[in-house]
Amino acid sequence: MSLLHRISVLAVCAAAALASACAANPPSPSGDGKQFVVGYSQSNNAEPYRAQLNLQLQYFVKQHPDLKLLPITDAHQDSAVQVSQVQNFVQQKVDALIVSPNEPAPLAAAVEQACAANIPVIVLDRSVHTDCYSAFIGGDNYLIGKLAGEAAVEALPNGGNVVELQGILSDQPQIDRAKGFRDAIAGRNISITAQQEAKWLKTNATAIMQQWLARGDKIDLVYAHNDDMALGAQLAIQGAGKAGAIPIIGIDGLAIPTGGIRAVQNGQLLTTFVYPTCAEQAVDTLVKILRKQPYEKTQILPTTRVTKENAAQLYQEYDMSGKIGG
């Protein structure tokens, strides 16, 4: 075999190997084999919704070998801590940043620092008080609140007293879920007789619900701004010997054994609403940004009401345990 023939054969083999490798691994956004480093600042890993978001985000990032997700930081619902964590990512010169804000105002300056450093920022679920970000992905919280209010009207056709467990008061999802609910129950002889910030957490909601029950006030329904608080209220109601006597409405609809979909199935909750984790959309958008492809800056994801009739089907549809474990 001549030298020229050997070179030609090697070239063909190399091309075949490269084609095979490209079939197995997506090309990097830049086409040069570079690995893109991504930072993610989470507001609070203690919330089941956010813990699930973390797992799903890690899974979807792993589908792209050219992406490297740094260890997810946990702000523990402390905005000052989160600002510092975002600033650290900026100092590390990550290629992209994902942020689930604890509160909208404190994070604005840190997001603007990332913007000034030409680091694309994807904001998930909760807004920030700046327009200097690449994309926002979240649900229609006003609509979800309104649908929750309509569910309350169905449950209380003759009117009644509702208590409301709120998230962090400055968070836009909390504000929108409260407003939508109130608009839906207006003129329906339904009164919100007590409301309190439980900061999205089950333990806080249990303690607050225990206090409300201890007062002896008439409570016909509980509206909680997420399923974790809803299930916290359910624990208090059960502890007071009133299990099943007070219907509870939640929001999140996670397809996990301790999530809202199962809770509707087993009668712990009257209903809940699926609030997508945004993880898959975040990674899809991240890849488009890095590839310099068109993408939508604002992405509002749909919701579905969970009932006993559709819970099993929705659980199967959203269940990711076979991919992320659990």
Structure description:
By secondary structure, the chain is of the alpha/beta class. 44% of the residues lie in helices and 17% in strands. It has helices spanning 3-24, 48-62, 79-91, 108-116, 141-155, 172-185, 202-215, 227-239, 260-265, 279-290, 311-318, 321-324; strands at residues 36-42, 67-69, 73-74, 96-99, 121-124, 135-139, 160-166, 190-197, 221-224, 248-249, 272-273, 298-301, 305-306. Strands 1, 2, 3, 4, 5, 6 and 12 form a 7-stranded parallel sheet that branches. A 4-stranded parallel sheet has the order 8-7-9-10, with helices on both faces. A two-stranded antiparallel sheet has the order 11-13. β1 (36-42), α2 (48-62) and β2 (67-69) form a beta-alpha-beta unit. α5 (141-155) runs parallel beside α6. Mean pLDDT is 91; it is low at 1-28.
